[in-house]
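Annex B, item 7. Sequence and structure tokens for protein A, then protein B.
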Amino acid sequence: MNRPVNVVRATVAATFAALLTGLLTVPPAQAAPGPRTLYAAPDGRGSSCTPARPCTLEGARDLARTETGRDVRVLLRNGTYELDEPLVLGAADSGSDGRTVTWAAAPGARPVLSGGRDITGWRQNTDGTWTAGVPAGVTPRQLFVDGRRATRARGGACAANTCDATKTGMTGATATGIATWQRPTDAEAVIRIRWRNYHCRITGVTGDVMTFAQPCWTNSASGTDRTGPSWDSTTVDSARYSGVAFFENAPELLDEPGEFVWNSEARTVTYLPRPGENMRHARTVTPHTEQLLVIDGAHDVTVSGIGFAYAAYRRPDTDEGYAGTQAGLTLTGATGPVDHAGRFYTKPSAAVTVRGGRNIDIDNARFDRLGGAGAILEAGTKDSSLTRSSFTDLSSGAVYVGDTEPMPGTELAGERNTVAYNTISRTGVEYTDSVGIWAGYEAELTVDHNSLDQLPYSGISVGWGWNQPEAQTSVLRDNRVTNNRITDVMQVAREQHDGGAIYTQGAQPGTVVSGNYINRSAFGNTERDGNGIYLDEQSSHILVERNVITRVGYKWVSNWADYGIHNTARGNWTDTAAPALGGTGSVMTDNLTGLDRLPAEALAVAARAGARGGPVEQLRTDLARTGTATQSSTEGAAGPELALDGDTTTDTRTLSGAGTWWQVDLGDERRVRRIEIWNDASATTAGFDVVTDDTTIHVDGKALRPTVLNLDSRTRTVKIVTSGTGRVALSQVLVHP
């Protein structure tokens, strides 16, 4: 039936009015509540957690637990939060249903969680030292005076022919004077062997023989069968033991400004101030509380802008001591299972520990003046990150990610974690075998755009297991070590060897090492050591691509083991060469090696690497490269030209004799500013003169890798002449205009 237009319009209008009325009468949907912000302060109290009445850290945590259905922010006011025990965040402190929980610095604040204890009441002694009592329960293994680390009083080295170590103890108490010390049982022996570091306390002196705390000494010696048998070659009683680096913590050794000594019987610490330090006004702090923040089983938590300082690492002060195995992990306990793959080694204590975390993000944190490590992400932590943070002046390593079990269950597997845009410098101050960033058995780990500088041993270490049978199959895969800046690592003065700026172990299908800038790894060493990228012990299926690697003490890339297979090194830039990669299916292709100038593309890659990019050490033109080399005699096939081939892994060698020499003729007279002399593998060139047409420079002792001489000479020839009856053996000689 046809209806009039006006009737239709009226019906539509009535219907619209009814709908509008209904909409206006329906209650509006409830808006999601806004985030709840709580406040904490060093002097906080109560339970309000408001800007006017902030809470303690624990009070803010407990109130945050009562919030549901919205984001929670806990803002920390400026100041130092002195902790007797760590702040613990567990499952109840997680975000849920899409909400997040954030612990952060309040706007403009720089809060610091501290485990330190002040040492006060200093009194001056007649010898210029100062002494103070130490609170009960506190053991000052480290001491910081106005924020500057002091050194435990230490002596000189003691060679193995005097301090002869055995499975049960060590000789040398008489020659070192330890036999006459008032309290030798407060002192420790510090020993460095290859990649290992040991700190064991003296427990007794009988005649010339010292004994040491147990199980520290047994765990540092051979034959325990709790480490791989081959590692017995790097124990305190091995053939590679060359002596004690130093004994420390005895008043008889307190002779240098900035040193201190702890007396456990009198419970005092005595310090010899540096020039300008006034102990009546200085703030003196010792680390005491081990952990400052523990996140255990939590998820969806962000920690941002918080500092962590003066956390302790107590185990080395016990009879466990510090029986280093590798990378800052130690052998602990008097007994344990046979463990050739390091499955039961123990990580150091850290200021921040995340266990079994999910989506935990630590950002813009500051870790400094620590007695142990910076941060640990372990026990199946996944999808978590540590970013844009700084680590400075740590006794142990900066970051530890993952664990030592090659085939963990799903819940305990570390996956998809990120360590990126961090700055790491001067770590491993006390435990020199530690590394900047360590990762065990991880999958899809990203280590990207970090800057690492001034480290005693390796910079970044990924993987574990040493090709032992129980470790040959693991969860390692698809890890990325990219765009990092690693400079001045494998420091020669710290006596740690057999490492690299980037170090790997284990088969890691899909793993990529790319875009990194590595400069001066083991620069100035006394032997072939300190690689750029070290594919060690079963490292397999790894791509090494577009890295810039310069000024390293040994190989720019090393894959020495036949069981490290299917590795590829391509498109890298370096100033030296290396032997072909070992292992079936490993290849090197399109690498630019033996450079004496970095091309623009390499400079750009290096400049972008690291947390904020940075300067690049351009190589110097080598005038010797096109010269003609001769020598006084030749042993075997070690001809003089091998010092001009751009390869620090090949050697010249003369016969021994009076005045033996090696020489390069530059072809024309040139103005020379610098000469670099790289010794051969056996460091046999020692006590020699470097002679130009108008200058002679004498070098005592062994040539290094390299010995660097700065001069201003006009010359056509550069000659290296022994001043005794030895031989000249060189891997490289560089002459710079």
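Protein B:
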Amino acid sequence: MPTRRQFLVLSSTAALTGLLSETPASAAAETAQPYASYWHPATILNWDPATDRDARYNRSTVPLARRVVPARPANAHAHPNEARVQALVAYAPTSNNPAQGALDMNYYATNYWQYIDELVFWGGSASEGLILAPNATVTDAAHRNGVKVIGNVFLPPTAYGGQIQWVRDFVKREGDRFPVADKMIQVARHYGFDGWFLNQETAGGNTQLANDMRDFIVYMKKSGLRVIWYDAMTDSGSVSWQNALTARNRMFFEPSDEMFMNFWWSATGLQNSAALARQMGRSPYDLASGVDVEANGYNTSISWASVFPENQPHVTSLGFYRPEWTFKSATSPADFYARDNRFWVGQNGDPANTTTTSNWKGVAHYVTELTPITNLPFVTNFNTGHGRKFAVNGTVRSTQQWNNLSLQDVLPTWRWSVSGTGTKVTPSLDWDDPYDGGTALKITGTPQQANDVRLFATSLTISGNTQLEVVHRTGSGPSRLQAVLRFGTTERVLDLGGVSGAWRRSVFPLGDHSGATLTEISLRVLPGAAVTALIGRIGVTNPVMTGPAAPTNLAVEQVSRTNATTASARLTWTRSPNVRQYRVYKWTGTERIFLGGTTNDAYFVPAIPLTPSETAQIEVEAVSEAFDVSPPVRVSITGTP
């Protein structure tokens, strides 16, 4: 197994030799670029969203979606409603982490949300900050998929810069209050995430400090936020990893929602932990057995049977430390997606077929996928949240690389499950020819029989005016594509039409299924010659006559000169109701250039083509959940800020 040191310090690129000053997150106030927030226990006490100029840019606005088990889960071996999956992910260094994405495609675009229950925003270091609030972009994407997002507290060992005084400052009381807890509650509510992961590994504590930490958890839990405890500190105040739930750490687990158990567990230890949890009146699935995959990913040796014994209920839940290995170890975006697929689904690349001699069968072999597609409208453009370009309704509006998980769509539930015998088609996500956003679904191959590509598990109640929308394109010849909708045991097949060298939009009324529940969306490829098809959009909507209201009070908060031909800017506006996202463009008089987007009411535009003598027209438009758009609102930006 990797060493404890890897667990502790690789969350940051900053060196841990010596302690730097405790600089608040907004120290770089003179620059336009807003950054994600981080603090030490003393500095968070001074945080105020009214004076932190970056606070508005760090807010998530996407509510936590409701998720359900699919009507037809992919894998009969997997168990629903038992083990949950935590993922502890480090997206960026603790400091200088851009709040709203960046102009670079190379980013861990988490997209197997269907197997994750909670995302812990990992990071922190003695030299930078110990309390980390998640990027709003991560929270937006996770919430859209029904996944809770948890901020991180890292109180490090003394060997890596930890100070026991920081722990005392963290749990310091003022009367019946815990001031640091009050600030952490305020941060979570203002930024829109769901709770905190507490990792206390600083030596030198005593029983009183342990009791104070327990009381801190009890106090924070009263706010309604979730608290996850990491197995390190014990009832004596010392640090001693139990690798289990024991009499020495139960005092912290009892008031917490969950506990992440250290990596060196055994089958007997997990069984005993589950039994103790039940004795306490708790679910054993409130315990996550930690698995460190930072170094070796799906090549990590794990005793899967200890957590998921064959033909028996799961013993505990599962906690992955650093599953972004799939990105860190990849040589290209395609390699990242192949590695990510193998990590979550297994080496067969099909959640319905996880049979393999490999020890790593994929999470889909054990844990049933969940779908957040439970309300109308549902529209996806297969946008992964990063790309090489950005298209709007079939027209490329930017050729700049980018990442911004706030713009990510709900991606296919099953990647990739294709029925049929003989040669099958191959589905993939494609960044070369998007319809809207940065990605399209691509299907290639020469099927010998009809192939059904299972895409989305849904739970959508159809009304009299509900319709299905599919936007696709192919090369020469018939498309041979059909949409297949399932309503329980009833199947409806809709032909998508013939030659479509350009993007073709097909709309099908579903009113004759009014009152029924749509449970699945697939695409069928009929047999014949080779096919290359791009699917740019799939939507199930109740059309409206008017689009969303345009934003109001659009204002330029700051402009900064980047270089002789480029500037950056902070923009703010007043939100409209029922808006999925806002998109920002430069209007040249003849064309619109896409500059970025957000779910928020404030956006940092990182690169506006703008010479010092130029005055540019910036447009902001609202986009609804059905991707209807408002009229644009304009503001002028001059080239000399």
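Comment on protein B: Confidence is low (pLDDT under 50) at residues 1-29.
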